[in-house]
């Protein structure tokens, strides 16, 4: 193997980190599955008990994700968090940025994939290791898990 071959993946990781958009194995099917597991992907859910939108995103989660908002919006504007969290694509950006920050092999199976993102989404990024067994979230995640794990990149 040439030295160049080893440099390319490192460059890709640096680029991904710079733009904050690519998270390994967090594909559209995984995002959709997290959404389904947490609220049935109810896009009319709004905000209840401090959680907003189809991904059920709290203000703290949003802040930890870097406060993404709609283009031209201001994170300091009252309602900016709610508006982004309530809309599927903007909320997907919140989740993606959150996973870019906290993504790791929570279940220690040797790969960071949608199973881990599910644990992070449900448990939070600071203590993702708690098993999801016997939760309604887990039961629903299992329904869409096969699609969510298809197309893993590593
Ligand atoms: C979606 O959420 C709204 C508001 O909470 C609720 O009225 C509606 O029944 C939910 N839809 C589904 C399919 O759960
Ligand atoms: C799962 O959902 C059912 C029906 O909504 C509810 O009665 C039950 O308490 C939930 N279980 C857990 C572990 O959240």
TrEMBL record:
Signal peptide segment: 1-20
Class of this enzyme? hydrolase
Annotated disulfide bonds? 30-114, 35-41, 47-52, 84-90
**Assigned keywords, A-Z:** Antibiotic, Antimicrobial, Bacteriolytic enzyme, Disulfide bond, Glycosidase, Hydrolase, Signal
Q: Name one GO biological process term.
A: killing of cells of another organism
Q: From which domain of life does this come?
A: Eukaryota
Q: Which Gene3D superfamilies match?
A: 1.10.530.10
Q: Which InterPro entries match?
A: Invert_lysozyme, Lysozyme-like_dom_sf
Is Glycosyltransferase among the key words of this record?
Answer: no
- Report the CDD domains cross-referenced here: lyz_i (cd16890)
One example GO MF annotation = lysozyme activity
The catalytic activity, as recorded, is: Hydrolysis of (1->4)-beta-linkages between N-acetylmuramic acid and N-acetyl-D-glucosamine residues in a peptidoglycan and between N-acetyl-D-glucosamine residues in chitodextrins
Q: What is its EC number?
A: 3.2.1.17
Q: Which PANTHER family match?
A: DESTABILASE-RELATED, INVERTEBRATE-TYPE LYSOZYME 2-RELATED
Know the name of this protein?
Answer: lysozyme
> What is the scientific name of the source organism?
Megalurothrips usitatus
